[in-house]
User: What shape does this take?
Amino acid sequence: MSSQTNSTVVDRPTATSDLALRPQDADVTQQMRIGRFKISTELLRAYTMVFALIAIWIYFHYSTDHIFLEPRNFSNMMRKTAVTGVLAVGMLIVIVTGQIDL
Assistant: This one.
């Protein structure tokens, strides 16, 4: 066995370096080009679901002979989903407080 100590230096960043932005990286955001428009990736992710929801609403509006987007239909849908919503909020509170026992 050798009596030499292994003194190799490993150049690693600090553990918190990926959490904090360096000053030169503060203005850099990821962007995607759609045609001539530049849209940040965060906005694209957020608005993609909104556009998908609007497209689904438009599809159902035309497939139900213009009944889907009427206020009476929204009222009926809210009334029918109220029980499920109350149960979901109750389960959320139980899970968050850690009182669930599987």
Observations:
- The chain has a mean pLDDT of 78.
- Helices lie at 41-63, 71-97.
- Strands lie at 31-34, 37-40.
- The longest strand covers residues 31-34.
